[in-house]
Amino acid sequence: YPEIDLDDVVRVTGTVETREDAVQLEVEKLVRLNGEAEAKVRERVDAALEERAEPTDVDPLIEWPAFEKLHEDLANTARRLRRTALESRPIRLRHHADGDGMCASLPVQHALENFIAEVHEDPEAPRHLFKRLPSKAPFYEMEDVTRDLNFALEDRERHGQRLPLLFMVDNGSTREDVPAYRALDQYDVPILVVDHHHPDPEAVDSYVEEHVNPYLHDEDYRVTTGMMCVELARMIDPSITDDLEHVPAVAGLSDRSKADAMDEYLALAEAAGYTEADLQDIGEALDYAAHWLRYQSGDSLIDDVLNVDCDDPERHEELVEFLSTRARRDVDEQLDDAEPHVDHERLDNDAHLYRLDVENHARRFTYPAPGKTTGELHDRKVEETGDPVITIGYGPDFAVLRSDGVRLDIPNMVEELQDELPGAGVSGGGHLVVGSIKFVSGMREPVIDALVEKMADAELDEALRSTLVRDGGDE
């Protein structure tokens, strides 16, 4: 029937048979419907899909006003994902390859795979219709989008698959994502985003169908993507709730959330059998595994580390102990070698500034990476001083920034540097207290000098922290 195209409405007449334990229809007659007949079928199918796609109404794991603001956006995203699965459209989930990104993506992965298995006869449907794809960069790189688009077009050509829906998790909210989105905009690839990084809604919202971000509701980075996506996953498939009760706490610790709700999440995890030390170890193990997996999803390995859909608790415990121990060993060795090369000064606002050339005074191409090295050095200095601290780890064309007790507003600083230093190629972003910037290598010195000047003028704010120290001084 060469005259019939994908998405046409047809009436099929034939005989239902079974073959290799699957149901098939031996077609005798196939006719395309048009006009009123087509419209009635489309209305009936659309109504049925809408009803089946409706997310489950579940209470959040904890009572938190921040989630009340986000609930409708998360429900709309859950509805769109369920509808996409019902329509046999592939879903490609791109997430930041860090602890919070994996705590966000794994629950959604298992929820969607369960839902796909439930609504599709083909036992291979979850594997064909869903893929989780880690991203190293804190934005959707052109390298990633080119690879994703190429695979999608090949799948359409070879297997007749529809182009996928792209679901961006713990990534995708900033101006840096726009070039990749513009590439997808040339094709029929819908985009959904759940992220907690400081967004550029005026830049990205014309390209995305759903954009869930706490900043859009007067909240901030303390509501981590992992916390949001656990609730999203439960709306898609509430049966996995018991497996996820510890995950928001791991996400919060991994992304250094200072949310008041962290104490409730820690209590929830403790009731499920996890101490805070256990959760810290899981976060370290996730980060270590993600580093070595690079661009691979490592589905079964990450399941076992996070203890989500893991069938052997003893293996989970032994794996976490092994990976977290190696992670701490490598971090300690890196910092011991780097410490003698750290430059220190006291800024005009009385904050401590520590600088480390991670290109020349830290091991390269191994764990920990420059961002992790900077973060761990920062945590040491905060613990040593107890004062407001800013740490810069810089290379030939990048700088990683961390602060405690100082209101940096890194996204705003990036915009100011772009205006003040034309030709420096400044880009980047992050949160108020954690971020990174890029620049052309020949302009490193003026960029770093301008950064330090802005840091010296920044307002001190004891409530702003990026370390794992929470109220009460527990670490």
Gist of the model:
This protein has 475 residues and is of the alpha/beta class.
List keywords for this structure.
alpha/beta, single chain, Diaminopimelate Epimerase, Chain A, domain 1, 475 residues, inorganic pyrophosphatase (n-terminal core), six-stranded mixed sheet, five-stranded parallel sheet, globular, disordered C terminus
What is the fold's blueprint, element by element?
Elements: E1 10-19, E2 22-32, H1 35-53, H2 65-86, E3 91-96, H3 99-119, H4 125-129, E4 130-135, H5 142-159, E5 165-169, H6 178-184, E6 191-194, H7 201-204, E7 210-212, H8 225-236, H9 241-244, H10 247-254, H11 262-271, H12 276-293, H13 299-306, H14 313-338, E8 343-346, E9 352-357, H15 370-385, E10 389-394, E11 398-404, E12 406-407, H16 410-420, E13 427-430, E14 434-438, H17 444-457, E15 459-460
Parallel strand pairs: 3-4, 3-5, 5-6, 6-7, 9-10
Antiparallel strand pairs: 1-2, 8-9, 10-11, 11-14, 12-15, 13-14
What do these coordinates show?
This protein is of the alpha/beta class and 475 residues long. The chain has three domains: 10-51, no CATH class; 54-325, inorganic pyrophosphatase (n-terminal core) (Alpha-Beta Complex); 342-460, Diaminopimelate Epimerase, Chain A, domain 1 (Roll). Helix content is 47%, strand content 17%. It is built from 17 helices and 15 strands. The protein has helices at residues 35-53, 65-86, 99-119, 125-129, 142-159, 178-184, 201-204, 225-236, 241-244, 247-254, 262-271, 276-293, 299-306, 313-338, 370-385, 410-420, 444-457, and strands at residues 10-19, 22-32, 91-96, 130-135, 165-169, 191-194, 210-212, 343-346, 352-357, 389-394, 398-404, 406-407, 427-430, 434-438, 459-460. The chain has a six-stranded mixed sheet with strand order 8-9-10-11-14-13, with helices on both faces. Helix 6 links the parallel strand 5 and strand 6 (191-194). The longest helix has 26 residues, at 313-338. Mean pLDDT is 93; it is low at 468-475.
